[in-house]
Amino acid sequence: MNRAIGSRHWAGATSFWLCLCLFLGSGLLAASVRAELVVIMHPDSALPSLSRQAIVNIFMGRHFRLPGGGAVVPVDNQCCREQFYRDLVDKTLPEINSYWARLVFSGRGSPPQKISTDAEMLDLVSQNPGVIGYVERSVVDARVTVVYALSP
Amino acid sequence: MILRTWSPGIHFRSTVFGLVVAALPCAPVVGAGGTPGGWLPEHVSVAAFGTLSLAYNDNRDVEFVRNLSQPDGARGGFSALPDTILGAQVSYRPSSRWELVLQAISKYDYREEATPTISWAYIGYAPGPHSSLRLGRIGVDSYLDSDTRNVGFTYLPARRPIEHYGLLELTWIEGADFTTNTEAAGGILTAKAYAGLAGEKIADRDQQRYSLKDSRVVGGYLQQQWGELRLRSGVSAIRLQREAGALEPLLAGLSGLGMPEADRLAADLALEGTWIRNWSTSLAWTQGPLQTELHYNRRQAESLGLADGYSVYALAGYRFGAITPFIGYVTADSKSSRRDHGLELPEPVEFLFRSALYEQRSWQLGARYDFANKAALTLQVDRVDAPVPEGALLRQSHPGWNGEATVISLTLDFVL
Questions:
Q1: What is the Cα A30 distance to its own chain's centre?
Q2: ipTM computed for the complex
Q3: Percent helix / strand / coil, chain A, rounded to 5
Q4: Residue of chain A minimizing CA distance to B372
Q5: How many CB atoms lie within 10 A of CB B236?
Q6: Which residue in chain A has the smallest CA separation from B374?
Q7: Number of CB atoms found within 10 A of residue B250's CB
Q8: What is the 3-state secondary structure (H, E, C) of A49-60?
Q9: Is B409 near chain A, with CB under 8 Å?
Q10: Which residues face B407 on adjacent strands?
Q11: How many contacts does A have with B, using Cβ atoms within 8 A?
Q12: How far is A104 from chain B, CA to nearest CA, in Å?
């Protein structure tokens, strides 16, 4: 009888740890398969790369100039906006919207314009030297240049 | 238990205004820049914000208010009056340099109603990407982020505390401001200057209204941003243009004594033509899920009818998933401006000196739940303590009130 109970406990504990490992493993797997995002500009921008802080300043509406002095216009990509701000500043979309509401309702700025897909972003950036955007690395082609890669 | 809702005094227009704001999400297109084919003309954008709130004050001996423009609020029960706010903004930007902005806001104030008022109406010009000039009715940010104190979605607590933000309800001026920023010291340096005339009214402790209309306002600040750290220091000053109605009989009585000392005292007590200066320094730091703020403000008043004072406000929150618990502490204190004028002061004057004093501190404990990308619920408990009940920043306290109150607030904040 006691052995049967002990056996059931053992089986229950094993199941629990198995489920926990599967749960954590699936989370890690999900994190590991998140796409890598890259920040892109027109090849004529002549910038080998940008610093993370420069990208934060541009996309958070603080400073719209490149290190070389040229003006730049940030554009958000709807398809990966949530991941972009998570990776860039570890903020959720409600926090980003709250941040922009503070600027909009104090007259200090407007959030970046938004486009819907990676393909539209590539078209937009490749045709406008002053625009900066972001896409998944897997879709990048020769029409744009990568100025920063975000770790997922 | 008393369930207080919007008072019957609320004007019909506020209802219409609320309906307009509530209808915005149903509109086919709401977007910056006016989407071609949408209902907005090109270059026109509409935005709105709001807070729907219930505050419960457990104390029947005092009215809990959000700021000094409110004559009453929550007492011994629930009230939607202190924190319920609706606002809408329409912008027209024909180019990257020019903009026309109109903003209206509906909130309970000194009129004992919530009729919408125009809080902004300005034309803006940006000579370059890092500077802007605005002319018209513009928001005033005497303290860090005080120009968005009515937009609850932009901060963690249910409200910005009265002890720091609510002492002077100066939210707009009619004038001009100029803002510029540049890269400096490894970060971004922002400078702003403003000047104009005030136009708002406040409800004082004696339930009388005091008008700031035509009072001159000047101010400015410097802000340095290093990454997610903001450090801001500035000053704002207002030259009161009018005498307080409650003071006039006293001043006339003193002047009528025919004594030089009494004349001098009357001149020292008068508000008209005197300056109030607010020096403020703030630090705000955010790092991923962490948000912190520390504020200090010092008030200096030329009139002896107003006390000098200071306030300190600290706030910290940390996000877990969609929920951000936070804790805040604020204290405001003042010192008597009473001086020896060579007179034995009559009781009304002594009372004036005493009533000008304020001292109050509060703990804020709560949590914000971001249940949608542009909406959040906040549950908050405020523990208010006024060591000298007569110096509380709350309203209409009954004799015998012990200076304490516990307020529980539930707010729904949103932006559109």
A1: 15
A2: 0.84
A3: 50, 20, 30
A4: A94
A5: 24
A6: A94
A7: 20
A8: CCCHHHHHHHHC
A9: no
A10: B57, B382
A11: 85
A12: 9
Model confidence pLDDT, tens digit, residues B361-410: 999 999 999 999 999 999 999 999 998 888 888 877 888 888 899 999 99
Say yes or no for a CB contact (<8 Å) between A106 and B148: yes
Q: Which of B89, B138, B373 sits opposite A94 (nearest CB)?
A: B373
State both tokens at A70: 């040229």
| pLDDT tens digit sequence for B53-94 | 999 999 888 889 888 888 888 898 999 999 999 999 999 999
What are residue B245's DSSP bridge partners? Answer: none
B400 sits in the region (left: phi over 0; alpha: psi -120 to 50; else beta) called: left
Q: Identify the CA nearest to B212 among candidates B269, B166, B272, B162.
A: B272
Contacts of A98 in chain B (CB under 8 A): 153-155, 376
Residues B376 and B345: beta-carbon distance below 8 Å: no
Give the gap in angstroms from C-alpha A85 to the nearest C-alpha of chain B.
10
pTM score over 0.90: no
- CA nearest A100: which of A66, A59, A45? A59
Phi first, then psi: give them for residue B164, nearest 5 degrees: -110, -50
Q: Are B212 and B272 in contact (CB under 8 A)?
A: no
The residue with tokens 């100025």 is A147
Place of tokens 């630090």: B283
